[in-house]
Write a structure and sequence with these properties.
By secondary structure, the chain is an alpha/beta fold. It is built from 15 helices and 15 strands. It is elongated.
Length: about 425
Amino acid sequence: MQIIPHVTDEIKDWLKRVGEKEGADVVLIEVGGTVGDIEGMPFLEAARQLAMEVGRDQVLFVHTTLVPVLGTVGEQKTKPTQQSVRELRSIGIQPAVIVARGEEPLQDEIRKKIAFFCDVEVDGVVSAPNAPSVYEVPIILDDQKLTEYVMKRLELRAKQEDLAEWRDFLDRLRNPEGECTIALVGKYTHLRDSYLSHIETFHHASAATRCRVRIRWVESVDIEKKGAEPLLRGADGILVPGGFGDRGIEGKIAAVEYARANQIPFQGVCLGFQLATVEFSRHVLGLADANSSEFNPKAPHPVVDLLPEQHAVKTKGATMRLGAHEITLAPGCAAAKLYGDTTIFERHRHRYEINPSYLDKIEAAGLKYVGRSDEGRRMEILELQGHPYFVASQFHPELRSRPLRPSPLHLGLVRAAMKAK
């Protein structure tokens, strides 16, 4: 296959622009897939050319390989690594670091063997065994002096920093002082990776509060069949995340009602935000037919709907509201206290909005939209007065959560769940 120069040139230019725009000292580039895949060849070729252009002393290639263990003999085998590196070298890339994945730590003689046959320094062969948590991995790598090796190879000047803060995070995560149960009511709980961002966000919140969060997976369709009480009883908090399509919607609405009526800490995200509005409209305002026009285009009370200017759009392609947007919070509201500010930026992925025609009636009954954007036209955060924690957001706070900086709204849910025990 011939790789068109225009393609590799565009890849290189894009990588350079990222570094220049951010004023970065180092640009970390991940080329996914397996060496030899046709899909990845243009990217590997672009990386090779980039190293030639900027200077090989300015580029460090790190190659992750598998070091399997044959069950019959129990020996760590290096042949897959040798073959993979040979494939890389055939296209002009010589890795300086090999990260050897395996179930167990790399044996010293195997490390030396990989170094010898792959033409890599012994210090550049790093073991990456299975770990109890992904958050252990930076410590595992740092303990093998990978940081120092990379700094030396790239001739970077070390800052007076260490991983003390990260180690403290790990300690808090490993040694909780309490626990709580959060029921996650979703439509795709059979594939839990669908909610991976929420899972990791709860890990972040767990470390911040020293409270182990146990997630109870609840399929919303099951609530429709069995009712909310038997599936949500005993939960210290309830999270209703995003989703698309009308399957399981009534189950999610029932979960929201259960949380509201029983004073159980609740958080809604994206669709969960919209359904909190639908549930409140139905059971507090008495609008029994309240719904989202996404699920019932002829709903008598479309409390969730497209904005007026969106009605002219007939196709769904490229019509979603995406990316980070500025949001203004009402001073003194729970969200503002959690964020420590009244102006925030959060990421979105949605099409439908709260219908402004119903705002006055909803807020008069106690459901307040304390976060707004687009000069107040779009509702972003709601809070229910008189409830210990009933907060929902149109945006996805889990997407900006970090180990040392957890999502404020998830953190609020965990704190409220701890108090509810």
